[in-house]
Write a structure and sequence with these properties.
Structural class: mainly alpha
Strand order of the largest sheet: 1-2
Number of helices: 10
Number of strands: 2
Distance between the termini: 71 Å
Low-confidence stretches: 1-13
Shape: elongated
Length: 206
Amino acid sequence: MVAGGVPVRAARKNAPPREDVLVAAMATIAERGLEGLTMAGLGREVGMSSGHLLYYFRSKDELLLQTLEWSEAALGGERRALLSRRGPVAERLQAYVDLYVPTQARDPHWTLWLEVWNRSQNAGPQERERQAAIEGAWHRDLVALLAEGISRGEFRPVDAERVATRIRALLDGFSIQLAVGLPTIGREEILAHVREFLTDTLSLRP
């Protein structure tokens, strides 16, 4: 079998580590946006032909999904570290929100997420399951955080699963507006809206 006219065995020998390709893809998105990410250009960055890249990743859709999975793995480690800290649950919940919301317009991680979401309309069941696994990790951590706050008496008793679903819907809606660069709302205003919602939903009643 050959890949791009080169024997597969030689392609594997000459290929850079998979993570190098994913790092280069994310760096390109950060610097030039998704429109600047092409298989040919990425191949030049890592010293591979576009044919070799297609052999390893099969399609640009798969490259984007693997890049998202790699980025989320790093973000997941950061999230777990934040949530395992000692101290009030409310502070850790705010840290979760701060990590979730994009830092600025055209945030590369969110830019990638939006493109994967868009392409998921034509994705197969396995690809959809992989996307769901990423979102599921965020959801489970939020549910656990809310449940801890309830059990410790910091939050009033609510259905943690339902409230987590609403919080993430709120965060997604605001985050998309910020990521695409709509001039109507800034990050600090978003965080203030979310704090107000959390206070109204979770604060203990007198």
